[in-house]
Amino acid sequence: MDRPDFKWPIAAAQLIAAPAEEVWRVISTPGNLESCHPFCAKNPVREWPGRESRDEVHYLSGWVFERRFCRWLEGVGYDLEIGRPSGRTSFVSWRILPVDAQSCRLRIAVYPFVLQDVPVVIRWLPHMLYLRPMLRRYLSSVVKGFEWFVTRGEAVPRDHFGRHPWFSGRKGTGRG
Predict the structure, then answer these.
(1) Is residue 127 assigned to a domain?
(2) What's the number of domains the chain is made of?
């Protein structure tokens, strides 16, 4: 599902050597971010599963975002809105794309709310030079974390694919 009102989605995908059904089982498990997300400290669930699902992402940096699911496609993926409580939200689409019987790609696309109110001619440069590379780096770590968990059966270590200035633990806190 695209957000025509949001410009320039940012996405990352990861090939996973596992059947699409197994990846679906992982991404549709409540609290899955605690095992699979390299920047997640905790992932409390308020309601699960399905279109009305709600949870929170507590990042290592201390930020807390709410996820409100708006579309649930059994075995395929879901769409959600994510943002700070009572704040603006970005639209996120998770999809499992089968490659063959034993592998698939997990793709996450974010339609960020940041800069959406800025005229296109002005927003292009900060989007391309700052927002896109930072979010792509973040998303790449997230899909790699799911690949790690699915193929190894163990939780991904925090900051395993590199620290991120927005989501990693703060220096000196012992959290990352």
Answers:
(1) yes
(2) 1
User: Hey, which residues does 66 pair with through a beta bridge?
Assistant: 56, 83
Domain presence at residue 18: yes
The helix/strand/coil state of 151 is helix
Task: Return the structure tokens found at 134.
Answer: 């930072």
CATH number of the domain that 144 lies in? 3.30.530.20
The per-residue pLDDT for range 86-135, each reduced to its tens digit, is 888 999 999 999 999 999 999 999 988 665 565 666 666 665 666 688 89
Q: In terms of C-beta density within 10 A (0-12 exposed, 13-18 middle, 19 or more buried), how is residue 136 classed?
A: middle
Long-range contact set of residues 100-103: C-beta below 8 Å, sequence gap at least 24: 101/19, 102/17, 102/18, 102/19, 103/15, 103/16, 103/17, 103/18, 103/19
Does residue 2 lie in a domain region?
Answer: no
Return d(Cα 150, Cα 152) in angstroms, integer.
6
Express each pLDDT in 139-154 by its tens digit: 999 999 999 999 999 9
Amino acid letter, residue 147: E
